[in-house]
Specification:
By secondary structure, the chain is of the alpha/beta class. The protein folds into 2 domains: 245 residues, nicotinate phosphoribosyltransferase; 170 residues, TIM Barrel. Helices cover 41% and strands 18% of the residues. The chain contains 17 helices and 19 strands. The strands form 4 sheets. A 7-stranded antiparallel beta sheet has the order 13-12-1-5-3-17-18. The longest helix is centred in the first third of the chain and has 25 residues. It is elongated and about 85 Å long.
Length: 451
């Protein structure tokens, strides 16, 4: 699925900077902070995801001989620098918000402290892994909120942006509350329940639609779900009811039907009525076809008789917000707090912590502080890696999922609104605010000639 070694999954300028650091003997510790600058449209929160991939990458980080030969072939780097890379491993520390927790803009998702060459070279992978999974987990959480307790299944694999993305979508959406995925490999790798019924090609391969239904019921009598819209949804529902009654006569039970086109709200009501009339009162209706949080909310508002949704492309690529404005910025080097003052891209100095204030039942506010500040609230950034080694075993995906469900239930619905959510209150701690002002003053004096 991927190369044996991922150390070259980085941008070329990481190597040019690293070569300069090496030449200037800059090996002091550096702290980089990963955060999201702004909310995408209609977002009011983010869901932490992707940390497991980051930790796995950092623990195994190294350059093999094939990597070094390729870098040498570029005729850009000295033999001494390449020899240095041959023994390089990640030896740093990581503080991170655990997967499944909520966080908000400007808050550090994780901070890496390591010799600057190490911390610089891992930047691109860290950003890529966190950006994708946070984006998808957040989109999936919005779908779960819109579904109001209806079950959701990830149907996105065939249209995700690559195979690895498809795996991560299945994982991230499961964290956010989806009950499973159609992605069989994801089911195997992450122990996620897998779901699937039949395609229209299966129906059209038979001479008659009802023959397709009968064949499927014969093969899978304990898990029979028919796709009924190949020709006409209502006529298909009547045929499914006939086969459902035939199954009852054999001591079996039709589990449900799937709708994949048309006016889902009105069709689901008609289909439900058809099955009730046939004496099949507990048939589930599963719907797929272009669903995201907006369409789910719409059909539920229209009174749809839908029990579960297959959510595909628009969730799998987070169609309305396919990326986050994520950044990985140097905030401390060799004991010196640093920042950038670029317009719209100003950073917060120093090693940080985020304190979460709750009343036991709901989230009230967060405070971004310096790591050594002592404030009320729960510190969100946990030490997860020391000297390049994990500090504890990884939680199971179900544990992460339960963590999300608990915290999401504590976030007020005003911040979960699908359109124009309220902005969750995030403040700066007093020591961070004071240091920020101090460093800005020094930078302006030294770099801009201001007094």
């Amino acid at each position: 699925m991927r190369p044996n070694n991922l150390a070259l999954i980085t941008d070329f300028y990481e190597f040019t900077m690293a070569a300069c650091y090496y030449q200037k003997k800059m090996f002091a510790p550096a702290t980089f902070s990963l955060f999201i600058r702004e909310y995408p449209p209609n977002r009011g929160y983010f869901v932490s995801a992707g940390l497991e991939d980051v930790l796995e990458f950092l623990e195994s980080f190294h350059f093999n001989q094939e990597d070094l030969d390729y870098l040498d072939s570029l005729s850009f780097f000295s033999k001494d620098f390449l020899h240095y890379l041959s023994t390089l491993r990640f030896t740093g520390d990581v503080f991170a918000i655990p997967e499944g927790r909520l966080f908000f803009k400007d808050e550090p998702i994780l901070e890496i402290t390591a010799p600057i060459i190490e911390a610089q070279l891992v930047e691109t992978f860290v950003m890529n892994a966190i950006n994708l999974q946070v984006t998808i987990a957040t989109k999936a959480a919005r779908c779960v909120h819109a579904a109001k307790g209806k079950k959701l299944v990830d149907f996105s694999l065939r249209r995700t942006q690559g195979i690895d993305a498809g795996l991560k979508v299945a994982r991230a959406s499961y964290i956010a509350g989806f009950i499973g995925t159609s992605n069989v490999l994801a089911g195997k790798l992450y122990n996620i329940p897998v779901f699937g019924t039949m395609a229209h090609s299966f129906v059209t391969s038979f001479e008659r639609e009802i023959d397709a239904f009968r064949a499927f019921a014969e093969m899978f009598p304990e898990d029979t779900v028919f796709l009924i819209d190949t020709y006409d949804t209502i006529i298909g529902a009547h045929k499914a009811a006939i086969v459902g009654k035939e199954m009852l006569n054999r001591g079996k039970k039709l589990k449900g039907v799937r709708l994949d086109s048309g006016d889902m709200a009105s069709l689901s009501k008609e289909v439900k009525a058809i099955f009730k009339e046939a004496g099949l009162n507990d048939i589930s209706i599963f719907a797929s076809g272009g669903f995201d949080e907006y369409k789910i909310a719409k059909v539920i508002e229209e009174g749809a008789e839908i029990d579960a949704f297959g959510v595909g492309t628009k969730m799998g690529v987070s169609a309305d917000a396919p990326y986050a404005d994520i950044a990985y910025k140097l905030v401390n080097y060799d004991g010196r707090p640093v920042l950038k003052l670029s317009t719209g891209k100003r950073t917060l100095v120093g090693e940080k912590q985020v304190f979460r204030i709750t009343d036991g039942n709901s989230l009230k506010k967060d405070i971004i502080a310096l790591r050594d500040e002592e404030l009320e609230g729960e510190p969100l950034l946990k030490p997860v890696m020391k000297k390049g080694k994990r500090l504890q075993s990884s939680p199971s995906l179900n544990e992460i999922r339960e963590r999300f469900q608990l915290e999401f239930s504590m976030l007020d619905d005003t911040y979960k609104r699908l359109v124009n959510p309220e902005t969750f209150p995030v403040e700066l701690g007093p020591k961070l605010e004071a240091l920020q002002k101090q460093v800005i003053f020094k930078v302006r004096e030294k770099e801009l000639g201001e007094s």
